[in-house]
Write the structure tokens for this entry.
Amino acid sequence: MLIRSPIICLLAHVDHGKTSVLDAIRGTRVAAKEAGAITQMIGASYITKQTIDELAKPLKGKLPTDFKIPGLLFIDTPGHEAFSTLRERGGSIADLVILLVDVAQGFQPQTIESVKILKQTKTPFILAANKVDLISGWKSQNTTSILESLSKQPEHVQTRLDEKMYEIMGKTSEHGFDSERFDRIDDFTKQIAILPLSAKTKEGLSELLVIIAGLSQKFLEKNLNINEKSRAKGSVIEVKEEKGLGTTVDVIVYDGVLRKNDEIIFLTENGAKTTKVRGLLEPSISGKEKFRYLDEVVAAAGVKIFAPELGETIPGSPIMVVRDIENDKKEIEQQFKEILSEQAEVGIVLKADSLGSVEALIELLKRAEIPVKLAGVGKITKKDVITAHTVSKENKHLGVVLGFNVPVLGEAFSESEDLKIPILRSDVVYKLIENYQDWVREQKDAEKKLMEKKSWPGKIKVLQGCCFRVSKPAIFGVEVTGGRVKPKSQLMNSEGKIVGEIRTMQHEKKDVDEATPGMQLALSCEGIYFGKDVCEGDTLYIYLSSPEIEKWEKQLDVLDGGEKEIFLETKNILVKKW
């Protein structure tokens, strides 16, 4: 039985220092003074145990530094969020996540989004509070240990850092997590560790690697056991064209041993397919050639697979060595069958860059109460736009295509213009959802302005003892009991007969252009003879023509609950008459 390296992912809001932290981690080979201490893998960087041991020296006696794990595998593929790209049975393949927070800016929308998804996938994480060197008065020390650096900071700087820590602790607690600064934690199973650091000066880098290694070893040891004889399992990061090789797939192998000539099974939109591994590649160290060929890779590792017929592979999907073709096919297809199937009868169309992204987005859209009709991986196509157009006939605010980190085919653009179906895209999850919600608001506001020029459903009751003129024009008092009432609207009785038209309206002796429920008015109406056409206590409605009723039926979401009820009352009265 072997112990594999834990798989570590970094999540962060834009500009909170994710790249800087990865660069600092990759640069630890200098601190370790050991050639090859960092192995650059496909989509990952591998930190050896020797490097971690070297960085742990300043922490002897302060933190546990006896490690059995062979190293740490940091997934660092640009343009991909680890939580959404790398999946195994609906959970992230990451053993542990570093959630990076700018110590000055604190929690931002993407930070909150990441916390929600980490909670959803039950992935362990620590909070790294980056950019401590920007705290007013901070004096950077020539050390990779934050504890050593803190001991040399002025007291007011330490107090300021504590204030920042409490702010982060408060935000973390809002999402149901108890957290504390790492060196004040008694039980790491009950509290999320917050680690202050500076990617720029590397202060805190020792503690970061030591705590990750320690937590992985202590709490995830069973998950790290692999058998050399067990078949390899991995997750596809990216599908790429490589000159001279054709289509290849970049994979993180998280279990077992993958060997050249192994038969592997992978997922496509048309179901599971198999192929034979022709080559396993990693970046070349010499620089003369782009890649170096391997005979095998042991989990955990990042590797490029060269094999025939990989072009249809779905990014984010599982890949594994074939053992029993029929059972393997069922297993691999079942894992993601529900994700790519129709979700709702009426809903938006969603396309994303990987299966994991689709899965994460569906969950977030569900929380935002935005139904999804169809979800898929890859480019936005003409078919997607046509599907959205069909939806728009049922609900125009759902007749839209959302794209996360994917391109749009030319024919899809043309079709969207012809059918007037919007395509909304973003490479930031929360922005994509915000953009859609903003678009819906804009549509509803525009519709309201347009409908304000037309008759609006409304209902009034004629008040007792408030007739001021019998006719030419009749002037009498009413109370609005629902909807909206405007001048130039025709009034009808409860039998659907038009009794007259509102000329002007006064509320508290002032002319008004619109009245809402609860307002009492004096109406001046043409065509009404009070006592004959209209009497005290009568209920009157705003008359709606047949075309107006048809238009309102298509725009019911513009009306609030009470207005909808009055519209339906009005419609029922008129339908009986017609």
Summary: The chain is about 30% helix and 30% strand. Confidence is low (pLDDT under 50) at residues 28-38, 77-91. The longest helix spans residues 429-452.
